[in-house]
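Researcher: Structure for this, please.
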Amino acid sequence: MMRALKSSWWVHLPGIVAVMAMIALMGARRPWPARAPVHFDVHWNADRWGPPWECAMFPGLGAMIVVSGMTVSAMWANQEKGKKRFNLTLPLLVAPLGAVTGVHLWYWWNLAELAGTGHAGGAWGWVWICAAIVLAASVILEIFRKPGRQA
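Model: Predicted structure, token format:
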């Protein structure tokens, strides 16, 4: 049996790992091409080109989502007064973080192909899989979290 977590912050560990994975993949994909697609339509066709570092904003966006989620989770736990309630804001924060992670990982994983042709398949798969993984991991950790501040 898994021991209960004592802090509301641990439920965001999958998000922190996702942000670290985004940064690590960017570093592993060096050197970057001078020009690559930096914006896509809903069918993942490139509609704007530029330097790939423009897409480096995604880890920053992910970090902001993690920090805001940690803040909201801490506030949620402080209102529990010893009686455990599932944090209903958690899925609303971590699912988009997982989707952002999926877009980012897809982009950097396929950067060479994107720079050459402007298209690479499987983007929606990356988005859904990453969103599901981060969401499921965070919800599992939330289930094992102990209630916040005792009354």
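Researcher: Any notable elements?
Model: The first helix runs from residue 13 to 28. The mean pLDDT is 88.
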